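Task: sequence design from structure.
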């Protein structure tokens, strides 16, 4: 077989592999039927806190946004709590703390949204917001 033929064969194998993986991912979620949950707005485009400064974003596999604000930690958590509860996230009181908010949505795929706040010695509040999507494969 010529090198051109080998190249085309490898290309077909790669494309076939891609579609097999895609089919597995779709089938894993669709096998649960009505339990599939489309992403909520804050999953696709996590809201940035009003007045946030020094914003850093890290993308996939997890969306992580780190920023600072002059507001108090409890004000930041209340802002995000209002958003996620209006959108329909599951709120588990036991997973919460004074400086931490954690909610889930799913089951397939499962989405996790967390906000952690910490008062810095500078007087600013440091915020770490993380959005995680867990793809289901059965």
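Answer:
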């Amino acid at each position: 077989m010529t090198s051109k033929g080998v190249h085309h064969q490898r290309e077909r194998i790669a494309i076939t592999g891609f579609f097999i993986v895609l089919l597995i991912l779709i089938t894993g979620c669709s096998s649960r039927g009505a339990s599939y949950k489309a992403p909520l707005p804050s999953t696709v485009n996590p809201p940035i806190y009003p007045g946030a400064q020094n914003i850093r974003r890290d993308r996939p596999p997890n969306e992580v946004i780190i920023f600072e604000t002059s507001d108090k930690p409890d004000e930041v958590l209340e802002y995000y709590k209002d958003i996620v509860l209006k959108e329909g996230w599951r709120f588990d009181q036991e997973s919460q703390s004074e400086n931490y908010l954690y909610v889930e949505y799913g089951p397939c795929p499962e989405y996790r949204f967390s906000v952690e706040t910490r008062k810095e010695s500078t007087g600013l509040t440091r915020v770490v917001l993380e959005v995680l999507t867990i793809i289901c494969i059965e």
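Helices lie at 3-30, 41-44, 73-87.
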